[in-house]
Amino acid sequence: MLMNRSRAQRLMAEQGLDALFLRNALNVTYASDFHNAGASLATRPFAAVAFRDAALEPFLVVPSVDFRLAKHMSWIQDVRAYIRAEKASDRDREFYPDFFAAVRAGFQDRKAAGLRLGYEETVLPAPFFDQLRAALPGCSWVPASELIGRIRAVKTPEEIANLKRAAEITVKAHDSFRQAIAVGATERDLALAAQFTMLREGAEKVGFIYVGSNATRGFAHHPFAGTS
To answer: Residues near 227 by Cβ (< 8 Å), separated by ≥ 6?
Structure first.
């Protein structure tokens, strides 16, 4: 688990918040340990809800297609899935009809009403936020992006270990990149050398490779390296 729950609960208490409603993809991953690139898509919202009261268990909301993976990866036991465009991935299981119904049920099952909810005020589109507030009548919403940043600023031992490991993998990728430089080598050759090293050393994915000489610098920020 990445998020330090006791620290989060203490900071929520200081701000007079009862819970945090997280929608940003990185914050959902931070709170749940469930990493999924689809969480950044506006059409397939994810959410994690963490409560100040230790007696109230957090819950995670995901599209139905991600239900099994979320159950496997996340430390959060209560995973609620809703049907989206991809419909249900488990035909023998009942899912919520939409995201807002899943969120509402999570609060209702905890008998959590009239709460002060901290939220990321910069990432919720107005129509989405209106539907969210309608799903949780009686709750008040408090901008909490700064608070969430404070929670994330202090790293857990696991986070520190992961950062060190990522740095080690990056250094090895740079070494393999330099070793691949030779007369006749293309951008693609160099990029593949670095990417292969990252994945071989344990990286989950390759987010960015800077490849390009002066003559081909246009490819430097392109997702696919060229052959020049």
So the answer is: 186, 187, 188
